[in-house]
From TrEMBL, chain A:
Name of this protein: ABC transporter substrate-binding protein
Signal peptide: 1-40
Residues passing through the membrane, by range: none
CDD domains: PBP1_As_SBP-like
Keywords, sorted A to Z: Amino-acid transport, Signal, Transport
One annotated GO biological process: amino acid transport
UniProt entry tagged with the keyword Signal: yes
InterPro entries noted in UniProt: BCAA_transport, Leu-bd, Peripla_BP_I
SUPFAM superfamilies per record: Periplasmic binding protein-like I (SSF53822)
Family to which the UniProt record says this protein belongs: Belongs to the leucine-binding protein family.
Automatic annotation (TrEMBL), chain B:
Gene Ontology CC terms, in alphabetical order: plasma membrane
Calcium listed as a keyword: no
Domain (ABC transporter) ranges: 4-245
Protein species of origin: Azospirillum lipoferum
Name this polypeptide is given: ABC transporter ATP-binding protein
CDD domains, alphabetized: ABC_Mj1267_LivG_branched (cd03219)
Keyword ATP-binding in record: yes
InterPro entries linked: AAA+_ATPase, ABC_AA/LPS_Transport, ABC_transporter-like_ATP-bd, BCA_ABC_TP_C, P-loop_NTPase
Keywords, in A-Z order: ATP-binding, Nucleotide-binding, Transport
GO terms of biological process kind: D-alanine transmembrane transport; L-alanine transport; L-isoleucine import across plasma membrane; L-valine import across plasma membrane
Alphabetical list of Pfam families matching this protein: ABC_tran (PF00005), BCA_ABC_TP_C (PF12399)
From TrEMBL, chain C:
InterPro entries to which the protein is assigned, alphabetical: ABC_transp_permease (IPR001851), BCAA_transport_permease (IPR052157), LivM-like (IPR043428)
Bilayer topology term: Multi-pass membrane protein
Record localization: Cell membrane
Annotated organism of origin: Azospirillum lipoferum
Entry's transmembrane regions: 62-84, 96-117, 143-163, 192-212, 224-250, 257-280, 313-333, 340-367, 387-408, 415-436, 456-485, 505-526, 546-569, 581-606
Keyword Transmembrane helix (UniProt): yes
Protein name: ABC transporter permease
Family per record: Belongs to the binding-protein-dependent transport system permease family. LivHM subfamily.
GO BP field: amino acid transport
Keyword Repeat appears in the UniProt entry: no
Entry keywords, A to Z: Amino-acid transport, Cell membrane, Membrane, Transmembrane, Transmembrane helix, Transport
Length: 427, 247, 610
């Protein structure tokens, strides 16, 4: 400012529009450049595959939630390597994956999806972790008629109220996991229940399903307190105290991650869990149990993934391959990522085509053998029957794990086909 | 003919009385000087008159209309213009645009969203600038002007609203002696031509006693003398508290 | 009764942590007048460093407390390094640059922390000797929380001694009141400021390290705490240590008892509280008016540079842009559509910052409200697209009309904080009002109808509407309205004394900017097909600020260039690397330090030199 030439009139300067013009022209040409088809991302081995590669566009919150999405990425990477080593898809074609970060924002996810479809010419979309991002990509998929396999989002809406022809979901939904836990909760003598859940759609729908399903089985129970901490900002002391004040017989917990660790520490310190049963969603997954080490809660009834105890040959092979490849043990995300990619490959092979409509038709009713057992994408609501492991938390050798668990097959916790179909919008 | 009647104006800051019971009358054709040592309460007095500060008690009436309690912009609209001790212009605009802003404000055309401001009232703005000797610099940004020039722009801005009363806080501070003289002569002309009523503060005694029609002397918040320059110059109280050995 | 007592104690434990962190923030602000956005990052890294040390040495009480102290000191050293490397060059910059510069540091630190400690949450050891709980009136209460409760007043006392009983502290207090005075006292202000940053960041690090026994250490800690610390500092009065203490106590209790009375709206409670305090007590509970931050007018009085020929250039550019669909592919067209929308968004913010000197930190609220306005009309009333698009600026403008009335009553940083508070309130409502807004799952299926569904058609529509709105904003900037706004910024005193009602112009500008941002939001909703609360969240506001800064705040065309470059950069970098936050953060810091005039200012600087 101080050095401005004293005779220059501000209005005499007309350079700015010129600069803007330059910038906009650069923008147009840059955009035109990025519009060109991108080079294939994986090195081709000539001669190995006879057909053209089939491309999968993969989107997830890698920078937003690395703790959950990186095991997931390793899972699908392992599956991809196995698929191509075994001759690719349709017996002739390499399966290629173009992976993108969505920065945890749905609008970025939609833009990335568009980029994958138009620039990278992908044939199938897969991935997503957050429910709202899953929903945004599902909506995009329907509009652009691209098959989309939602891997991790839990919201019921993605297959029911907002379901569409092109979207399929692998992981057991909030409803399914709540139903699995209600089955156990109903066996408890507890009559007075309190709930604690993060204050957004996932927490709200988990609590409302849990209440509704438990009341159906046990009309004598009452819900005496509910706490709705802000996701990631649980005020542990006051929350624990408020729950304890209602003197419940049992607690239904939906918090996870850092909130859960705080809740457990503070709850133990204040005796909240003394002589009380806790039923808790997802807490048995290694993502949440392992960081708590020897402070993992004892005796909670949870859904989860006791990977080290599942001794079917298929699962043992998966664990061995995963541990060898990445030098770490699998998480729940790993198995989801792995099965997602296997399902995508199976659908393409079944469709014998890289085109959208045949793949969608193939996905509807597709059954694959997975490390956790057979998984079917129901034709009625596009929800997979992948289940979850229901059991009791315990601490063994200084780390949290599950005991007395069983595999709850998702097929048993879904409404019948007719009822499910009615929940979806008319096509 | 306009008349600004000030009665028993009082204002304290945290128990310290800055202005205590000041009364005077300012009429058209007056070029009234308000003098006093530093901290006598001159600027506070100005701020009370134009609504910047609210008095604890007292009244300020312009032709019978009570001004106390009105915000500065309403007092301005009633015809009381002002220049500041520490210059305040619109530094990001040119000299002409500064004056045009006042003309636009007076014509109530500020809410215009379409016609460029720079094209409106340019001629009258240039005429006003010509009057204060700033026409040659009309298109320079105000932020780069010399101090004395900014003072002249302020005067042009004050005149643009065609005030009946003009409050000038140290109008010649920072000017060279020749400039000072020119500005005071100009002010005196304006008073005569337009029948303006001017109240000004000044440190430069030549300016005060050479041009003022009357002089008010403020000391520690109180008026201690009032009268023609000669009367004030001769007043022994003024000599003791203010003029000291100079007289 | 005993329950209420224990609940109050829990609130005190929360308050202690809040105070430790916000005391550092307020001390740094008091002396340097910089609002350090990166303060939360020091808290987070302090927690990570504390975790590592405590895992290794924290088996004994001496080892534990030694580790906590070491982590705090380490953060102090990092803070001093930031002062020397970055802040020192920003003391005389407009506050926008300071906020953004330190925000760049936040992004860089996030990625570096993830790289150093890995992405997983880390649960640390408990404090040795303080693992259990004691019974207070038959209610168990954790011992460690009791220690924290004692630590708050202890630190306040130590700081009081430091500031009142040592020469260094006296100098800091002198500098807080008058920055220029320190050099008169024969003190090197640079060293004093470095020392203050050391102290402030060490307090943040201490707060972070003390959390290790309470909760797991995560990568989300920084933003979570810094927003709350802002609230505490603003509510307490910026620069007032006792104010920060009082505000921490109040907010701690508000949260402890808020969850009993309103378990559902904990999200907004704190921001509502801040808004109420600021409206009633403009300078916070214990802040004094003379400690008010310098307002933007003191620092930005630059001519608005944009020629009359801008119109000619725009007319030349328009055919180029309009012809883009002939050469560009689908994805390029979508990028271009977004760029055009963001250009309007950035330009609307520039109206406030560049003309009015009003730095809004919550401009995304109006962008998001516009998007939701359109989406709600489509979802609940089945409105056709033209009607829904018309509804966008109307809803956003109405929102800005209400919020603006409160916001323009304050200036400078208080204005920025009030806009942030309103944006957070709007965001919370949208996020939690599930029945109407769909909550975090958003509203889907907001696609254009058949006639506008083609990428090229929608692009042309966007170009026409945004171009029209930009043209209006441009005219307004050079019309008396824009001049009156600048007049209020250049000298509020003079403006008032020539009949300009500064507040009313600022209010109208707020509404106009809100409506323009709303139109951009509405167009964005139809471009994406869906709306989500992220559109009104803090990162969206920061994006807009970066665009304005990137382009250059002194020029009317700057924000447009900023939007172009920022969006292309963001979308390209994001698809190339997982470290895009690091890259973006470094770019922001570089912009602030090296190209403070932005792209357009820089380019024209070159042109005028040659």
């Amino acid at each position: 400012m101080k050095h401005r030439h004293p005779t220059a009139s501000p209005l005499a300067k007309v350079l700015r529009p010129a600069a803007l013009f330059a910038a906009m022209s650069v923008a147009v040409s840059a955009a035109a450049l990025t519009a060109g088809p991108a080079a294939a991302q994986s090195a081709k081995e000539p001669g190995k595959f006879s057909g053209a590669p089939v491309r999968v566009g993969e989107i997830n919150s890698y920078t937003g939630l690395p703790a959950f999405t990186i095991p997931y990425r390793q899972g699908w990477q392992l599956a991809l390597e196995e698929i191509n080593a075994a001759g690719g898809v349709i017996g002739c074609c390499e399966l290629q994956v173009v992976s993108r970060d969505d920065a945890g924002k749905p609008d970025d996810a939609v833009r990335v999806a568009q980029e994958l479809v138009t620039n990278e010419a992908v044939d199938v979309l897969a991935g997503t972790y957050f429910s709202h991002i899953g929903l945004a990509v599902a909506d995009f998929a329907a509009r652009n008629k691209v098959p989309f396999v939602a891997a991790e989002p839990l919201t019921d809406a993605i297959t029911w109220s907002k379901g569409n022809r092109y979207t399929f979901r692998l992981r057991p939904s909030t409803y399914m996991q709540a139903a699995m836990l209600v089955e156990e909760a109903a066996k408890l003598p507890a009559k007075r229940w309190a709930t604690v859940a993060p204050n957004y759609e996932y927490g709200q729908s988990a609590v409302s399903w849990f209440k509704q399903l438990l009341k159906e089985k046990r009309p004598d129970v009452e819900f005496v307190a509910e706490q709705w901490p802000v996701q990631g900002k649980l005020e542990a002391g006051p929350t624990v105290q408020a729950l304890a004040a209602a003197k419940p017989d049992a607690i239904f917990n939906v918090t996870f991650g850092a909130d859960l660790a705080k809740f457990v520490r503070e709850g133990e310190g204040r005796g909240l869990f003394r002589n009380r049963k806790v039923v808790s969603l997802l807490t048995g997954e290694p993502e949440y149990l392992e960081p708590m080490k020897d402070e993992a809660p004892e005796g909670w009834i949870v859904t989860g993934y006791p990977w080290e105890q599942i001794d079917t040959p298929a699962h043992k092979a998966f664990v061995a391959a995963y541990s060898a490849r990445f030098k770490e043990t699998p998480k729940a995300g790993s198995i989801v990522g792995y099965i997602t990619m296997k399902a995508v490959a199976a659908a393409i092979t079944k469709a014998k085509s890289a085109n959208a409509e045949p793949i969608v038709d193939a996905l509807a009713g597709l059954t694959i053998d997975s490390p956790v057992g057979p998984v079917t994408f129901r034709a009625s609501d596009h929800q997979a029957t992948m289940g979850a492991y229901v059991g009791i938390t315990t601490v063994k050798d200084g780390r949290g794990t599950m005991k007395d668990w069983r595999y709850a097959d998702g097929a048993n916790y879904l409404p019948p086909d007719d009822a499910a179909r009615k929940m979806r919008p008319a096509e | 003919m306009s008349e600004l009647v000030v009665r028993d104006l009082q204002r304290s800051f945290g128990g310290v009385q800055a202005v205590g019971g000041v009364s005077f009358t300012l009429c058209s054709g007056d070029l009234l000087a308000l003098i006093g040592p530093n901290g006598a309460g001159k600027s506070t007095c100005f701020n009370l008159l134009n609504g910047q500060l609210r008095p604890d008690s007292g009244s300020v009436r312009l032709d019978g209309t009570e001004l106390v309690g009105l915000p500065p912009r309403h007092i301005w609209a009633l015809g009381v213009g002002r220049t500041f001790q520490i210059t305040a212009t619109f530094a990001s605009m040119t000299v002409a645009e500064n004056v045009q802003m006042v003309l636009l404000s007076r014509a109530r055309r500020l809410f215009g969203l379409w016609r460029p401001a720079a094209a409106q009232f340019r001629e009258p703005a240039l005429a006003l600038l010509d009057r204060v000797g700033m026409a040659a610099q009309a298109d320079r940004p105000c932020g780069v002007l010399a101090y004395g020039d900014v003072k002249r722009v302020e005067l042009a801005m004050a005149l643009a609203s065609e005030p009946t009363v003009l409050l000038m806080d140290e109008p010649t501070a920072g000017m060279a002696p020749a400039e000072r003289l020119a500005l005071m002569v100009l002010t005196a002309e304006l008073v005569r031509e337009r029948g303006l009523a001017v109240l000004f503060t000044e440190h430069d005694m030549d300016a005060v006693f050479g041009h003022a029609t009357r002089v008010l002397v403020l000391d520690r918040g109180r008026l201690i003398a009032e009268g023609s320059p000669d009367q004030v110059r001769a007043d022994p109280r003024v000599q003791s508290v203010y003029l000291g050995g100079e007289a | 009764m005993s329950f209420l007592l224990v609940q109050a104690l829990s609130g005190l434990a929360t308050a202690a942590t809040l105070f430790l962190v916000s005391s550092g923030l307020t001390i740094v602000f008091g002396v340097t007048r910089i609002v350090n956005f990166a303060h939360g990052s020091f808290y987070m890294v302090g927690a990570y460093a504390g975790w590592s040390l405590i895992e290794r040495f924290g088996g004994t009480p001496a080892g534990f407390w030694g580790s906590v102290a070491a982590a705090a000191l380490a953060m102090g050293v990092l803070g001093a390094a930031m002062e020397i490397g970055l802040l020192r060059r920003l003391y005389r910059s407009p506050e926008l640059f300071q906020l953004l510069g330190t925000f760049g540091v936040v992004l860089v630190v996030q990625d570096l922390t993830a790289w150093a400690w890995g992405p997983e949450d880390l649960l640390g050891r408990r404090a040795p000797g303080l693992k259990g709980s004691i019974d207070i009136l038959d209610q168990p209460f954790p011992l460690y929380d009791l220690v924290l409760i004692g630590l708050g007043p202890l630190v306040l006392g130590l700081l009081w001694l430091l500031f009142n009983r040592t020469r260094w502290g006296t100098l800091v207090r002198a500098a807080t009141q008058d920055r220029e005075m320190t050099s008169a006292l024969g003190v090197d202000p640079a060293r004093l400021f470095t020392g203050v940053l050391f102290l402030g960041c060490a307090l943040a690090g201490l707060g972070g390290a003390l959390q290790v026994p309470r909760e797991s250490v995560t990568l989300q800690m920084d933003m979570a705490i810094v927003v709350e610390a802002f609230v505490v500092v603003v509510v307490g009065g910026m620069g007032s240590l006792t104010g920060a203490f009082l505000a921490s106590l109040l907010i701690g209790q508000l949260q402890a008892f808020g969850i009993l009375v309103f378990p559902q709206i904990t999200l907004v409670l704190v921001f509502l509280f801040m808004a109420v305090v600021l409206v009633l007590r403009p300078h916070g509970l214990l802040g004094r008016p003379d400690e008010a931050p310098p307002t933007a007018p003191a620092t930005v009085t630059v001519p608005l540079l944009a020629g009359r020929h801008a119109g000619t250039w725009a007319l030349a550019l328009l055919p180029v842009l309009a012809a883009a669909p002939l050469v560009a592919g689908d994805y390029a067209l979508i990028l271009l559509t977004e760029v055009v929308i963001l250009a309007l968004f950035a330009a609307s913010l520039h109206l406030l910052i560049g003309l009015g000197g009003l730095v809004s930190f919550g401009h995304a609220a109006w962008f998001g409200l516009g998007a939701y306005g359109s989406a709600l009309l489509v979802r609940h009333l089945d409105a056709p697209m033209p009607l829904a698009l018309a509804g966008a600026p109307v809803l956003a403008g109405l929102g800005a009309l209400v919020a603006g009335w409160f916001c323009v009553r304050r200036s400078g940083l208080y204005f920025a904080m009030l806009t942030l508070a309103f944006a957070q309130i709007v965001w919370s409502i949208v996020f939690q009002w599930y029945a109407v807004t769909g909550g975090d799952n958003g509203i889907l299926g907001v696609w254009p109808p058949g006639w506008a569904a083609g990428k090229a058609t929608y692009y042309w529509l966007t170009l026409a509407l945004c171009g029209g709105a930009l043209w209006l904003l441009y005219r307004a900037a050079f019309a008396p309205f824009g001049y009156a706004l600048r007049a209020g910024r250049d000298s509020g005193l003079r403006a008032e004394s020539v009949g300009i009602d500064v507040r009313r112009f600022q209010w109208m500008a707020f509404v106009l900017a809100g409506a323009a941002a709303g139109l951009a939001g509405g167009l964005y909703a139809f471009a994406k097909g869906s709306v989500f609360p992220t559109l009104l969240a803090v990162p969206q506001s920061v994006d807009a600020l970066v665009m304005v800064l990137m382009g250059g705040i002194q020029t009317i065309t700057g924000p447009l260039a900023g939007a172009v470059v920022f969006h292309l950069l963001e979308s390209e970098v994001m698809s190339l690397t997982d470290w895009w936050r690091l890259v973006l953060g470094l770019i922001i810091v570089a912009l602030v330090l090296v190209f403070p005039k932005g792209i357009v200012g820089f380019l024209s600087g070159i042109r005028s030199r040659t």
